[in-house]
């Protein structure tokens, strides 16, 4: 059986919203970067559908000489419009995952 590499995580700070000031270990992908969007489901007190807090990855800072990104942080995004859907570069705005325009809204 092949030996697997340990899962890597990076301590990432959160800014704004209910998670402001917290630092959480976030799993990093094969490129060494955390995901672009971090969603946190918060259960409703009355047992209804959970509220989802959305945070977007932004650069923590840049180096002086080369302008390279020196790490990442998550910033609260209360107006998330992505709806959790994947957006491919070749997709038209407002298209459903099948690639056809969404006629339900029009």
Give an account of the 3D structure:
The model has no long low-confidence stretch (mean pLDDT about 80). The chain starts with 8 loop residues before the first strand and ends in a 30-residue tail after the last strand. With about 110 residues, it is mainly beta. The protein has a domain of about 70 residues. The protein has a five-stranded mixed sheet, with no helix packed on it. It has no helices and five strands. Helices cover about 0% and strands about 30% of the residues. Strand 1 and strand 2 form a beta hairpin.
Quick take:
Residues 1-49, 74-106 are annotated as: Disordered. The protein has a domain at 9-80. Helices cover 0% and strands 30% of the residues.
Helices and strands, with pairings:
Elements: E1 9-15, E2 23-27, E3 37-42, E4 51-59, E5 72-76
Parallel strand pairs: 1-5
Antiparallel strand pairs: 1-2, 3-4, 4-5
Task: Give the strand order of the largest sheet, numbering strands 1, 2, ... along the chain.
Answer: 2-1-5-4-3
C-alpha geometry? globular
In this structure, how is the largest beta sheet organized?
5 strands, mixed
Order of helices and strands: EEEEE
Distance between the termini: 54 Å
What's the helical proportion of residues? under 10%
Structural class: mainly beta
Uncertain residue segments = none
Mean pLDDT: 81
Oligomer: single chain
Radius of gyration: 18 Å
Number of helices: 0
Number of strands: 5
% residues in beta strands:
25-35%
């Amino acid at each position: 059986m092949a030996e697997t590499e340990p899962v890597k995580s990076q301590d990432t700070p959160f800014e704004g919203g209910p998670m402001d000031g917290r630092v959480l270990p976030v799993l990093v992908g094969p490129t060494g970067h955390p995901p672009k969007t971090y969603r946190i489901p918060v259960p409703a007190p009355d047992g209804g559908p959970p509220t989802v807090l959305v945070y977007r990855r932004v650069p923590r800072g840049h180096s002086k000489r080369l302008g390279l990104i020196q790490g990442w942080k998550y910033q609260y995004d209360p107006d998330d419009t992505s709806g959790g859907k994947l957006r491919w570069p070749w997709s038209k705005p407002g298209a459903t995952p099948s690639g056809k325009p969404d006629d339900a809204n029009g």
